[in-house]
Amino acid sequence: MKHLRLLMSLLLVISLTVLAEEVKKPTLMILPSDNWCTQRYFTQSFEDMGSTIRIPDYQRAFNEDMELPQVLSKVGAVLTGMGYSLKDAEMEIKSLNVKQAEDNAVSSKTSGANIAETPLDILKRRLKSDIVIQLWWNFTKEPTGKIVSFTLEAFDAYTNKRIATATGNSKPTQDAIPVALEKAVKDNVKDFDKQLDKWYADQKKNGREIVLTVRCWDNWENDLETEYGGEELIDCIQKWMRENSVNGNFNLSDGSENFAQFEQVRIPLSDKNGNATDARAFATSLRKYLQKAPYNINSKVIIRGLGEAILILGEK
Q1: Cis peptide before 294 (omega within 30 of 0)
Q2: Which pLDDT tens digit goes with each residue over 140-154?
Q3: Residue 209 host element (H or E)
Q4: Could you give the CA distance from residue 246 to residue 205 in angstroms, rounded to a whole number?
Q5: What is the predicted pLDDT for the residue at 124?
């Protein structure tokens, strides 16, 4: 009888562990949509490799719009109630110096080449959420009350690919906009939840998707066609990619003797210590591999958010 009770207890623990794994949800970060920010003139100009790009100014939006924190709090409560883990973008943005994004260019000590991250790239990297949700909302006045309309769009934080969408309208109401919006989201979020679950199941099975680019400094005496042990360097790199990506999944989409573009690279969700992985960690592993014999190649890792890294060979 004692052994039976012990067996039943063990089975219960195993069942609870499996259940916890099954119901685990991805981490989310909610932000106002680009369209919402543009409509309310919460934007700023950003210099990116010589081009001027207009992007949302989240810091100003949180500082100046009294409705925004309430809306995100209400919608966030709906999603956390469904089991999602929510990263607090507002608090991180308040501590984030946007000026850093404009000055955070990484350059070679000799060639002066540089690549900068946008403020959103930096925010995603610091919070390391799985999904970025952009929320747009508006309201119209009717004789019977306000009607609040909304759109939720979920993007893979690593690839910026759209993975889920939900739209809806509230019933005519006298409620405050955040409360009306919360009710509207609750009424229209089930299919959105299913889309996110399907995406996350794929991530757990096949790994996160990132982009890795390998380049060569123009003053390096070698290139990707240089042979090491009878094999060209690009072939050696591809062998490493097959061994370190999930199920060997990646696509060499473009390349030359000085350039290789790896897309749809699948990396594990976490490392052996349980820490979330990203493009930087993956590229750093390749950098350390190439630093050893027989290659002895110095290189620099440059990042763009969570899902894109550039490894430049020849020097730091």
Answers
A1: yes
A2: 998 888 999 999 999
A3: strand 208-216
A4: 9
A5: 82
